[in-house]
Structure formats: structure tokens, C-alpha cells
Amino acid sequence: MAGLIERYRDRLPFAAGDPVVSLEEGSTPLVPAPRLSARIGAEVHLKLEGANPTGSFKDRGMTCAISAAVREGAQVAICASTGNTAASLAAYAARAGLRGAVIVPEGKIATGKLAQALMHGARVIALRGNFDEALALVRALADQHPIALVNSVNEFRIEGQKTAAFEIVEALDGELDALCIPVGNAGNITAYWRGFREVGVFPRMYGFQAAGAAPLVHGRRIEHPETVASAIRIGNPARWEQAMDAMTASGGTVAAVTDAQILAAYRLLAAEEGVFCEPASAASVAGLLAHGAGGAERIVCVLTGHGLKDPDTALAEAGSVIPCEPEMGAVERAVLG
Ligand code: AN7
How far apart are CA 111 and CA 310, in angstroms? Predict the structure, then answer.
């Protein structure tokens, strides 16, 4: 399958002959969720963005941001990140032959994401501060040096990520009433809404934030955001107004979900639907279960990142292994008992 820029070039800011840095991202599955549908009393589908090359939706934006950086002659790409942007930047920078640098909140990014960023050869800087502080610092740094800033303040990120809306509209023939999506820095909900508007489909946009990191819900910056969903541990989203506009203009809303609700949805998706996403992604389903979607009949929940990103949370939430002696009776009891 071709990458996003190749598939949607007529709707993206890239001309024929422009350099393209791609890992054949996008074209992710949209799978029905029968158990969840029965609980909600509506037709629910899951957009599995964890099926992207680095395991999150960030690759859609990154193919565009890094391709544009190469076109502009940049040598270095940088971002602040709660983890997934860092992993994606690191991979695409490696592929492009750019130097990658990522600033992450020390001790607050999931193990898999850290492994990815390091393996792809990015310079990983652990900031003794949170994501919001990291973003303010990289913005200032990129103002003073010729480096490509590829956080979702970069328009190319939004352009790439809007293609997920195109795929959903294609898969459902435009028949969609509501989209449920986790909100952190608020780039992705902004991108989906742009994509939907471009193809003339207008689902209600329901954004969900973790209760301890819910600036949009409270209408004010959160100084010390906290949540088990480390990807969305963000207190001052860069795309604040655009996200609010997407929800208001579409007739949707923003609401909070507790860590307990996020983890319950996380376990439910894995155990009942066979879909392993990371905790932040489960906020979309937690929000749907807790708040509903205004009586919508056909709903898509965006599962933004793969469960393997965060093995520590998974092992803390899952059952334990069964120790067993290498002998038939013991194996029988262990398997069938
Ligand atoms: C799995 O990687 O902000 O509202 O630095 O990794 O567009 O920020 C990640 C965000 C949802 C929220 N789900 O999306 C980063 C970062 C997952 C994420 C979000 C993120 P935005």
C-alpha cells in the first residue's frame, strides 16, 4: 500500500517531484466492535492507528512534516513529546538522514516509546519538567536556530493527520454520526475536523481528556497535569481554540474521564474486542461509555496508539502468569484446572 502523500497528494501540500519520506503509513484498519456496540446500543467502529509503522497516528503527520523539512533543506528535526511524537520523529528522521532530537518529560514516557526513540538514533533529552515546559522550550529553540520543529504546531502535521478522516469516510461511505477521540495537545482532533470538512462530512466531534489533565474541560491551564495515560499528560494544549471550535461547530463536546474509567476501557478493549491499545487511546472508548455520544447511531472511536507502547501499564493491569513444573499433571492442572 502506498504512503499517505502518494495516496492523497491532490489534497496535501506536496507537488509531484517533491521529496517524500515515507514508511507507508496510513491505510489503518477500521474494525467493528460488536461487544462495545451492544453495550452502547449503537454501531461502534475502532480506527486502529496503532497499526501505523511506529505504532501511533503520529506517523501520518510525521511523513508530511519530515518530507517538508527535507524540501526546506533542514538538517535537524526536533520536538517536545510525551513519547509517540518522539518515536515517530526518530524513525522518519533516521529514514531521511536528518538528525533527530526529542525532549521528553523525565520518567514520564512509556518504555516502548523510549526504546523506539533511542533505537532510531535520536538524541533523547529527559527534561526535569513536564510536556508543556518542554514544548515552550523547543518553540523558543526553533525560533533561534535553523531546525525543523515537528510538533503539531507545524501545519504539515495537521495536514498529514487529516487523512485519517478521509479513510474513515471512504470506509463508511460517508455515513458517520460521531467521532470519539482522546485530546492531549489537541492537534489530532483539529486535523480530523479539517479532514471531515474537506470531504463534506460532519460527524459530531467528542473529545475526551484525562480528569487530571483536562484543561479544555475546565477552561483553564493545568499547572501539574497527572494521569496514567502518559501520552495525554498535557496541561496547556497548543491547538486549544481549534479543538474547541471543532467540538462546538460539529455539535459535539469535550468531557473528562478518570484514570479508573480509562483503565477499565483499556482492559475491556483487550479482553472483549481483541484490540490492544495504549491507555491514552482508551480514553476515547472510556468517554463513550461514560458520557455517550448524543444518541449517535454510527460512531468511530479513534485508538491512537498500540498497546505494546506501554508494557508496564499492561502488566500492572493484567492477570499474572501461572508458574508450572515441566510434567504432564502439573501442565494439565495449569491449563484445564
Ligand atoms: C496515543 O507524543 O502529544 O491531542 O508528544 O500519543 O493530537 O496531542 C501525544 C499525544 C492521543 C493526543 N493518543 O493527541 C506526543 C503527544 C496518543 C498520543 C494523543 C497523543 P493530540
Answer: 6
